[in-house]
Amino acid sequence: MVLEVSRWSPPEIVEVAVSEDEREWVPTANPGVHVRPLLFDTVRGAWVNVTRIRTTGLITRHAHPCPVHAYVIKGQWKYLEREWPATAGEYVYEPPGDIHTLTGHEEESLTMFWITGTLVELDEDGKTTGYADVFTRIAQAEAHYEAVGLGADYVKKYIR
Ligand code: FE
Fold it and tell me: pTM value?
């Protein structure tokens, strides 16, 4: 049996994960926190990015109904609810249902996240304040690329 790549198989993505082109870093609602998109998976409802944190203190409190995988490339960060910091070289599995408050460290951190499903933003009382999914993340990146001159269509190279 000879295996061939199916014509239905989507194209691969090969990118420098920690981009040196600042235009590829999308600002978030949190000053000092940028995300560098790598994949927007519109079929599974998931996305992959490198998150760059250059701020200390509380960043965001949220719930994940679906799993998250993280690999810390550089630096460290912490969830207020946990004893451990996530440090360079470590892999973190956030199980479905996890609720945590991300906090930055003095040193810059870089982490690759693979986020599935939805990220539900919460206030201090645990009340829902918003959400993110692959489609809100696409819209955020699209608007940023347009604003920095790359053009809104630049987002297409990350969409599968
Ligand atoms: Fe999270």
Answer: 0.95
